[in-house]
Design brief:
alpha/beta; 38% helix; three-stranded parallel β-sheet; D-Maltodextrin-Binding Protein, domain 2; 2 domains; 22% strand; 302 residues; 17 strands; single chain
C-alpha cells in the first residue's frame, strides 16, 4: 500500500458534505466501484487514526486487523482487474465523515470499526461481519465507577458520529441518569477528556477501549467496566447498489475464513503483542464471531 495521503479532494469533499448529508440517490450517481477503479487506476481505502486494533496509526502508517483484511481485498481487486501495479491510496476518515465520503465516491471502501446496523444500511452496504462488540466504559481505576448507575449526574465522553452516542443518549433517558454527555471528534479526543478529568468515563465499544487503554501513556491507571449495553457487529462498509463489488469483498473474506488466514490475523491483533507498545490485548474470539466463521453473514444489528 502507498503512504497515506490527506488529499485536498478528500478534505474538500468532507467540508462540503458536512453542510448537507449525502443521500442514497447521490450514491446511485457514482460509477460501479470496479469500473471506477479500472478507469482511474487507483483503489482508495479509508482508515481510522485511533481505532485500535482495527485501524490506527503506527507512526504515520495505518495498521490493524481491518487494514489487513482490506489489504487482501486490494489484492483481490488487482487480480480481478488484471492490474498488479494498481495504486492503493489510503485516506483518513472520522466517525462523522466516513459515510458521506463513501457515498459520494471520494473513497471506495471503509476499513475501520464501523457497526453494521439497519439505520446505516438505508444509505450504505456492508460486507460480511468480522467482529462483535458492545458499549462499555473506560475509566480511571480511582474514579469509583464500576457500572452504569455509578455515573448518575456525571459527565461522560463518547465519539461523535457513532452508534455509541445514540445508545448512550437513549440509555441516559431510559434510566434517568442525568448524564452530561460530551463528544470528542474521534476516539483519541474522547479519551483525552477523561485523561484531563473533564469527563469521568468514556463510553465506546469495549474492544476499542481495551486498545486505547493498552496504548495509553499509563495503561495501569485504566479499567474497562460496566455491562455491555448491546452486542453489535463490525463490518467493512461499501456503497449501496454495487453487488459486483460486494460479492468480491465477501468472497475474499470467506476465502480468508476457510483458509485459516482470518483466524491467524485475529491471533495477530487480539492475542499477541501489537504496536506501538507491544501490549497483548488478550481478547479471545467471542461466541458470536465463532458462529459467524461457521456461517458467514452480513446480518446487521437492529
Amino acid at each position: 500500500m502507498h503512504k497515506p495521503q490527506r488529499s485536498a479532494a478528500c478534505m474538500a469533499a468532507a467540508m462540503a458534505l458536512f453542510a448537507g448529508m449525502a443521500t442514497t440517490a447521490q450514491a446511485q450517481d457514482v460509477q460501479p466501484t470496479l469500473k471506477r477503479i479500472a478507469e482511474s487506476g487507483t483503489f482508495r481505502i479509508s482508515y481510522r487514526e485511533s481505532s485500535v486494533p482495527f485501524s490506527y496509526l503506527e507512526g504515520t502508517k495505518p495498521v490493524g486487523f481491518a487494514m489487513d483484511l482490506c489489504g487482501h481485498v486490494a489484492e483481490a481487486v488487482k487480480a480481478r482487474l488484471k492490474k498488479p501495479d494498481l495504486k492503493v491510496q489510503l485516506e483518513p476518515v472520522t466517525s462523522a465523515n466516513r459515510m458521506p465520503l463513501l457515498i459520494n465516491g471520494t473513497i471506495d471502501i471503509e476499513c475501520g470499526s464501523t457497526t453494521n446496523n439497519s439505520v446505516r444500511r438505508e444509505q450504505v452496504e456492508f460486507a460480511i461481519n468480522h467482529y462483535y462488540t458492545g458499549t462499555r466504559l473506560l475509566t480511571k481505576k480511582t474514579s469509583g465507577v464500576h457500572n452504569w448507575p455509578d455515573l448518575k449526574g456525571k459527565r461522560v465522553s463518547t465519539t461523535t458520529g457513532t452508534t455509541n452516542f445514540q445508545v448512550l443518549r437513549k440509555y441516559n433517558i431510559d434510566k434517568g441518569l442525568n448524564l452530561d454527555v460530551v463528544a470528542g471528534k474521534d476516539h483519541a479526543d474522547a479519551l483525552l477528556l477523561v485523561e484531563g478529568d473533564r469527563a469521568v468515563a468514556f463510553a465506546m465499544d469495549d474492544i476499542l477501549l481495551y486498545g486505547l487503554a493498552a496504548n495509553s501513556k499509563n495503561p495501569a491507571e485504566w479499567a474497562v467496566v460496566g455491562d455491555a449495553l448491546q452486542v453489535e457487529p463490525y463490518a467493512i462498509m461499501l456503497r449501496k447498489n454495487d453487488p459486483e463489488f460486494k460479492k468480491l469483498v465477501d468472497d475474499t473474506l470467506v476465502s480468508l475464513i476457510r483458509s485459516g488466514e482470518f483466524e491467524r490475523l485475529y491471533k495477530k491483533w487480539f492475542l499477541s503483542p501489537i504496536p506501538p507498545r507491544n501490549v497483548n490485548l488478550n481478547v479471545p474470539m467471542s461466541d458470536e464471531l465463532k458462529q459467524n466463521l461457521k456461517t458467514p453473514t452480513d446480518r446487521p444489528a437492529i
